[in-house]
Design goal:
The protein is of the alpha+beta class. The protein has one domain (7-141). It is 42% helix and 26% strand. It is built from five helices and four strands. A four-stranded antiparallel sheet has the order 1-2-3-4. β3 (91-100) and β4 form a beta hairpin. α1 (7-26) packs across α3 (42-53) and α1 packs parallel to α4 (120-133). It is globular and about 50 Å long. The model has no long low-confidence stretch (mean pLDDT 92).
Length: 146
């Protein structure tokens, strides 16, 4: 995605929202994830992403995208990149989740708002609200977010 002044803020919002999913996926052995990507067992990877997300998000919110990649060098630490499609109400985000030994990161490739505002700040606020509303959280906390 061509970076704009709102990219960093939106990536921060998305990273915070899906950090529990990334944490769950980092519990998997890197060699297993690399094997799944290498042999293109995308159905298995889709199941793993769905299982990691189902504890935190409503069904269908966080999905495996269309592929991924990995870096595995002699003497280096593995790094796995998984394409994700994140679909809270009213917005679709195409992103890449990077999983490494000590951290995870997210990069947004494209955002499509169903009814975009002419004000980018409103779109960013809508993204944040929509992600929060798609999570399983205590009702009292959700009322604060609305």
């Amino acid at each position: 995605m061509k970076k704009c002044p709102y990219s960093t803020q939106r990536e921060r919002i998305l990273a915070e929202a899906i950090s529990p999913v990334a944490t769950e996926l980092r519990l998997l052995d890197a060699s297993d994830l690399i094997s799944i990507l290498r042999f293109e067992y995308y159905g298995n990877l889709s199941d793993l992403v769905s299982s990691a997300a189902e504890m935190f998000f409503h069904p269908g919110t966080v999905n495996f995208g269309h592929g991924g990649s990995y870096t595995l060098e002699w003497g280096g630490k593995p790094e796995v990149v998984i394409d994700l499609e994140i679909k809270p109400r009213g917005v679709t985000v195409y992103a890449q989740l990077t999983l490494a030994a000590e951290h995870a990161g997210i990069e947004i490739n494209h955002i499509a708002f169903e009814n975009p505002s002419v004000d980018p700040d409103e779109n960013t606020a809508f993204l944040e609200r929509s992600l929060l509303q798609s999570r399983y959280i205590a009702p009292s906390l959700q009322a604060l977010a609305s």
